[in-house]
Amino acid sequence: MKRLGILFSGRGSNFLAIADSIAAGKLLGCEIAVVISNKADAPGLAAARDRGLAAVAIEAQGRKRAEHDATIVACLREHHVDLICLAGYMRLLSPEFVQAFPQRILNIHPSLLPAFPGLDAQHQAFDYGVQVAGCTVHFVDEQLDHGVIVLQKTVPVLEDDDAQTLSARILEQEHLAYSEAIARVISGDYEFAGRRYVRKP
Ligand code: GAR
After folding, report:
1. Distance 52 CA to ligand 1 centre (A)
2. Which residues carry the site feature described as Raises pKa of active site His (predicted)?
3. How confident is the model at residue 100, as a pLDDT?
4. 107-201: what CATH class?
């Protein structure tokens, strides 16, 4: 059984979608070992506790990034986590954090990377005038929203969309994409081929 550590900063709807997939038996072979938020009042933490999951707030409290991250890494190790899922975790990881779990950290981002990294990706895409938007699940490396892509889902931009309606439709796809990506990674059926993550021959 692969043990997931899920990190988020706020609402936690992607975390809940993963938890729901596991509870519904749609994401086999894994369990949530711990959820961690850098915000003690993150709604996702309360939702995790309601489900009886280990839920920990680790706030930065003015500490340097590397120091804060070291506390998070220790917590993930205590819970014997195999795979880390950033799900709306709005802090860049320190190199020490990334190196502590090589190729074992995933992130979801609400754009078709490499377009529109950073904050408010859906708004950036809408304001740019794209006709196709979407989301990306990727391995985390030391650059922002950058590592090898596990999978992407596309969302057409409709004529009567505004940034909010588009964001909502992207979020629906995020909720499907993350569980699919986790299943792909824990299946052991995929391997790295340069910047590609491909099914093994
Ligand atoms: C999601 O849209 C996620 O893709 C985004 O934050 C939102 C969190 O929502 N992440 C990023 O922009 C990371 N660069 P949630 O808390 O409801 O899952």
Report:
1. 23
2. 145
3. 98
4. alpha beta
ipTM above 0.95, yes or no: yes
CA separation (Å) from 66 to 54, 77, 92, 94, 163? 23, 16, 11, 6, 35
Active site residue 109: yes
Our mutation pick for probing the ligand 1 site, out of 6, 13, 166, counting the most ligand atoms within 8 A of Cβ, is: 13
Atom of ligand 1 nearest to the CA of 110: 4
**Proportion of the chain in helix, strand, coil states, percent, rounded to 5:** 35, 25, 40
- Digit-coded pLDDT (tens) for 64-116: 999 999 999 999 999 999 999 999 999 999 999 999 999 999 999 999 999 99
Q: Per the residue annotation, which of 109, 123, 138, 175 is the catalytic one?
A: 109
Q: Where are the domains of the chain?
A: 1-101, 107-201
Instruction: Give me the residue label for tokens 């904050």.
Output: 119
Asked if the domains 1-101 and 107-201 are classified in one and the same CATH topology, the answer is: yes
Q: What is the CATH number of domain 1-101?
A: 3.40.50.170
